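[Structure tokenization] protein backbone as discrete codes

[Encoding] learned vocabulary of local backbone shapes

[Begin record] amino acids and matching fold tokens:

___
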Amino acid sequence: NQSGDDLKLEVDWRNKDHEGGEAYDIGIIKNGNQRYVEVKSTYHATKCSARVSRNEWSLMRSAGNRYRIFCVYNAGKQEDVRIAKIKDPAAQLFSGKLMLRELHFQL
């Protein structure tokens, strides 16, 4: 448990101005520990289905529990916005807690 005086926090918003093809949207370094956040959004209240790029999937697997997906529900409806945080989505997919909707192969 650290006081605010001891906390060192850096935030790197990778896609602030436009989608740049990065493997994550926001990088957070808290006391030297790197975390990655990918933000997916939907206008729906309960369904968040999103495409995951090859770069995102690769980092998701290698970063493990340092990778998060934030699903923003009711995007654009400020009073009803809800955010679900998915920790270590690759592990959740392999354990069956997160469901794969489609899979595309490039041959």
